[in-house]
Amino acid sequence: MADQTPAYDVIIIGGGPGGYNAAIRAGQLGLKVACVEMRETLGGTCLNVGCMPSKALLHASELFEAASKDFAGLGIEVAPKLNLGQMMAQKQDSVTALTKGIEFLFKKNKVDWLKGRGRLDGPGRVVVEGPDGAATSYTTKNVIIATGSEPTPLPGVEFVEGKVIDSTGALSLPAVPKSMVVIGAGVIGLELGSVWRRLGAEVTVIEYLDAIGAGMDAEVATAFQRGLTKQGMKFRMGQKVTSARADANGVALTVEPAKGGDAETLTADVVLVAIGRRPYTLGVGLETVGAAPDARGFVAHDHFKVAEGVWVIGDVTHGPMLAHKAEEDGVAAVELIAGKAGHVDYDLVPSVIYTTPEVAWVGKTEEQLKAAGVAYSKGKFPFTANSRSKINHEGEGFVKVLADKATDRVLGVHIYGPQAGELIGEACVLMAFGGASEDLARICHPHPTRSEAVRQAAMGVEGWTMQA
Ligand code: FAD
Ligand code: NAI
Q1: Counting atoms of ligand 2 from 1, which one is nearest the CA of 187?
Q2: 321 CB contacts (<8 Å, ≥6 apart)?
Q3: 110 & 251 share domain
Q4: Is 131 found in the same domain as 112?
Q5: Average pLDDT, the chain
Q6: How far apart are the CA of 216 and the centre of ligand 2, in A?
Q7: Which CATH number does the domain housing residue 429 bear?
Q8: CB-based contacts of 31: which residues, under 8 Å, 6+ apart?
Q9: What is the CATH number of the domain that holds 315?
Q10: Is residue 447 flagged as an active site residue?
Q11: Are 185 and 253 in the same domain?
Q12: What is residue 467's predicted lDDT score, i.e. its pLDDT?
């Protein structure tokens, strides 16, 4: 095995949002840094087969549906025709531009990209097996494990290319299926289910729990499910799939009530399994530094440290499996390595579901506040009463602001409505500064914008909403 000198300050294994942001920050701080990535392109799950391609298809399919259903009402007569090949090509073009952008940033910040599969080989040593199979050993003061996650398989439901698929398969189907069953009403199921429903598939979502949205505020989940149902998505709640059989005609699924009962058979052209993701640590050599994943596969840490000189960030460790959380982890870990005060406030990591309309939230849900015995006040404002949303025929949804009853400090903001993902940023800033609902309510917002609905909901906490 070739031995490579000089030593690095930090080698990062994994070039996703956790790894590439850590690498760039390390370069900015003057550390000698390398990032090991085994894909042909940088950017990890997010840029290659996650956030970005899914948003490209959500955007294009949203416009297709609007052109098919809404344009005529605005006085625009068109007869849209789907060109799925072009829709996929523009998605891929954007993905390529983004992954090349990370390569550029690596060069700009003096980050070495070590191409291949990396593994820890005891303290201070990383072995990289290159695409040609040759192994090279590197010495380093620090290693950051940023190996991300992979789809969780469902026992009894084997993946079959083009028929029983995961999110990666659902991002590149060659044709619109007539029918699609989505297993799991979480973020992936609802986003990618929406894409294929908009393009013409009959979509049925099977969810184990009684609510969609994997833990979002219950009032929002109810409204969101009603909205998706109105759009044509079908839901089977409180049910589980126990087996799948794929043949030339499609897929036959055995479906049972989650709490027990009679099984039935459901058929579909394509089945998307989206029941969560699990940490990916295959062959990364944690055992060589005395570390191991926990029972659920996550690598636990103390301020990102798992052993002397070994750090962990992103999906492979605890916390929400989100790109921006991975990025925060990565920057904080590198700043700690550089002797700075790296820190992440996990209470303020926002979530967004990029459906139409979107769902976004930050902080606590009502259910979490009740369970913790926190007394809170609530302000709510509907988008039907927001002038910009009304004029654009986008009146679905509401904003909800939850504030501490005694101090008025904002504890949670939940938005189901147009551009919710953009609107939530204001709540993140407010809450990071420990802001009160009155602060938000007294800040002048531009008119006419949807952001006025956020302000009005904050006014509602103390009962002086004006526009409803
Ligand atoms: P990853 O992005 O998974 O990157 C890990 C990288 O490590 C991979 O490229 C992998 O090839 C590499 N790797 C693994 N092991 C090795 C090894 N031994 N040697 C070398 N390289 C290795 N999050 C959001 O915030 N917003 C969204 O809109 C969003 N949409 C999503 C849509 C989909 C369909 C999916 C699947 C996910 C989405 N996510 C979204 C989640 C987001 O993609 C992840 O949270 C994020 O990518 C995690 O970043 P990471 O750096 O921890 O891991
Ligand atoms: P998820 O955790 O969001 O949802 C999984 C859903 O499947 C849950 O509702 C769960 O109750 C259900 N489920 C689990 N087992 C089941 C079974 N056997 N039968 C039926 N239902 C079952 O996971 P998902 O959607 O796979 O997403 C994985 C991760 O990717 C999430 O953590 C999410 O944060 C991230 N992601 C983020 C996006 C965003 O930020 N917009 C977009 C897509 C993914």
Answers
A1: 25
A2: 149, 277, 315
A3: no
A4: yes
A5: 97
A6: 12
A7: 3.30.390.30
A8: 9, 10, 334, 337, 338
A9: 3.50.50.60
A10: yes
A11: yes
A12: 66
